[in-house]
Design brief:
The chain contains 32 helices and 34 strands. It is of the alpha/beta class. The protein folds into 5 domains: 111 residues, no CATH class; 81 residues, no CATH class; 283 residues, 3-Layer(aba) Sandwich (Rossmann fold), CATH 3.40.50; 76 residues, no CATH class; 202 residues, Rossmann fold. Helix 5 packs across helix 7, helix 5 packs parallel to helix 31 and helix 23 runs antiparallel to helix 31.
Length: 890
Amino acid sequence: MVMTKSNPEFEKLHLLLSEAAKLWEKNQVLVSSRNFFCLWMDSCKPRPFAIPADGLVLNRQQVVRPAEEEQGDRVGYFTWSVSEQCPCLAVETLETTQMVAICLTPDGAVFKPQPPMPNPLQDNTYGERVELMADAVAAVRARYAHLDLSKVSNAVLREALESLRAEVDPAILDSVLKSSAQVKRALLQKVLGDMAADELSSQLCFDFGDAPEGHVAAPAPAAVLPVELPARSRWEVVQDLDLLVECARLLVQLEDSFLLTLGNAAVLSSQEGRGCVIRMPLPMDSDSLPVREGDRLFLFRHGRPKEKLGELSLDLFDSGELIGTITWDDPGQTSPIDDHLCAQPRRSPLEYLAKSLETLRSSILDQALSGQEVVRRVLGLLPLRYRHAMRPAEGGLDASQATALAAGLDSENPVVVIQGPPGTGKTKVLEQLARELCQAGARILITAPSNAAVDNICRRLLGLPLLRHGSNRDVVQPEIAAACWHGDDDVLKAFAAASAARPGEIHASTHIGLLRSPYLAAAAEKDGPFDVILFDEAGMASAGETLLCLCLSRRAVFFGDPQQLPPFPLAPEAWRGLAQQFGVLNQEQRCFIGGSFLGWLQYHRQLPELLLRNSYRCQNPRLMRFAANLFYNAQVTTSPTAEYYHLGYRERQERYHASTLRFLNTAGLPAKQRQEQLTLTGQPGIENPLEAKIAVAALHECRQRFPLSEITLITPYRRQARLLRKLLRTVPADVDKQTWNDFRHNRISTVDSFQGGESDVVIISYVRSGGKGIGFVDDPNRVNVTHTRCRREMIVIGDLEHLKHYAHNRIFARMERAFRRDGVIEDLTADSLAAMLAVAAADADAPADHEPGVDGDSERDPETETEADSAPASLPPDPATKPQQLMFDF
């Protein structure tokens, strides 16, 4: 055997081929089997490896071709191909994976490269093609106003597509142009299916006062055939668990060793005796820090960590600098701000998680967890079976919701993944599942990443045998705590009585709350694992805490959306530590330790996900198209029950005209007027005064058409939300004081705080303009949350050119296309801005009965309160009308 490229991991293939040649004549079936491949994996332990630029050659066969210039780094690893039923060498780039089948024959191995396929998280090509076809339809409508779009010819369609060449990705355009007529027609029907019947042709636009016959409902989702995901090799699982344990250990080390000395800090403003605002250079890149914006560190003199002097709030990381606020515990005992003043993070659950994961690794690999098959099936030590269950679409459920509910109820499914994009009824399905499981006598765990999310579920299940667990009653909504807090003797008596009357029971807490609960540990010790655990907001959970929670139950149902806010990113220093110990990592491993565990289940373990397809939140389909195409590969649509489809043509044009999707673009205004500002008074942060004034003007305009309770202002930055509250401190004459105060407190929010909330109208301020970048604003998950909160109207305010220029992706360029096609982009001028602000000023200057607070900084700010000190006085209303305060804000 001649191997012309020396690579220690690639060379391990030599033993597989040698053993195959020896055994071929004796046992061809064994040699060709997956068991033979797994024996080799467990024996030789091949790791992922970097593929050299000039490729790989084995036995004079070019196994991997030289890299093309645009490919970048390539990673190779060995795996088993279910489709080819043979070993494969996977060749990964950032965007694609190519499988090279290793076909074992009597004469040796034959290497058969397969076409490269987009990586799961990169494969939005269908959504982009639908978006392109939507652009083509818009071009046809503009040029041939009287043409029936359902009967457009292939020639006209091709002409429209070609007219877009200068504006779109040429690769996507060419792929559509080269596709068959059937494929083009299918894309066209996808676009037209989002329209009302009388929008397809001007010949149908005569309005005789009648509503259209109704929108044709999307077909029920295709049946998911029973599948069995094969076990992975033991070595693949061992690698993942080793990475997870080492990652947890590194994070503990980073947290323990991090010490911020304040010798380089400059005082920007001071509050006599109470504290001050400081600016200082960051000791390292902000992404490498084991702390985040919004964290609070305790202060002490060097060498005396037990003598706490106060707190340092990390208000803002910007351009390599930290802006923070020092608050002294005792105004009479302040400390000089010098090299001896230090700040360190509070102790987090990381050490507990790290020790628990070490125990979990040993238990799983030693098979010490008797009866805990679900963990081993999820990881791949055992096959994972899934069967499709049918249930009629009844009881207020649509077809996709009924399918998801049936799968969750089926006790033969150890793990079920239900993906619920915004407004598709995810929480409704979760509630119904919990109720039916409880009625059937199941012992149920419910968990989510934040206390607010757990309380939201509990509120829906009050009246069932339910206990709310946790370490601190103060962070639980008062009405929830009064009804079901586990530490209340009266609650426990009522729970015991309810459990005696019916066998089912429900226990709810955050992930850490479940894991550290003595009550639940004792219950599991006495009665064995719980029957099922329901994970809500599962896209925000990491592998470590999820696997530990899985150990508590026999089955698991995941509810979430990996396209929304993910777990906190892993610090680059942790990635570097892992690379030093383990070498190159492939994308599956990186997702497992640093991404969403829900995403890993879907994209790498390849568990079938049940997608809830109809958005019931959005009543205006033009608002949903952008997010559906960009984030959900055009698989989510506005529900056929939406108001849009049940209005007559004239009324629909009046209520849902193009300006219901509006971008107020500040790019054409003078730079000094439109740019962001770093503000130090109060809590430091970034704000944009011009955008705030425009948002206030938009609010007053919308108040003429919508109830105040159905208008929400959201922004990525806490400081901008605070500025908006300050500008709106005066109560208009036509609004009572309590209503206005409720609006300012509940309906002006950061993006992260508003996940789970919704509103008829959403006004978005992106803030960034004139600086050196846009920070986290172009994070796709955050943009998805931002643009999927509204039911009827969306107004976006921002410097579109600045956002496009500094984005690390094409998200704002695609946003511009969507707004130009389906909505309106209004390029603000000095005159149009003056007119807009004048109207708003006239409305705001109306006599008021109350001015809450002298200025915006004197009021209690819901965006800056901690979870411990901001427990609301009463239970908030349904999240359909009230945003949920999550545990992290920016």
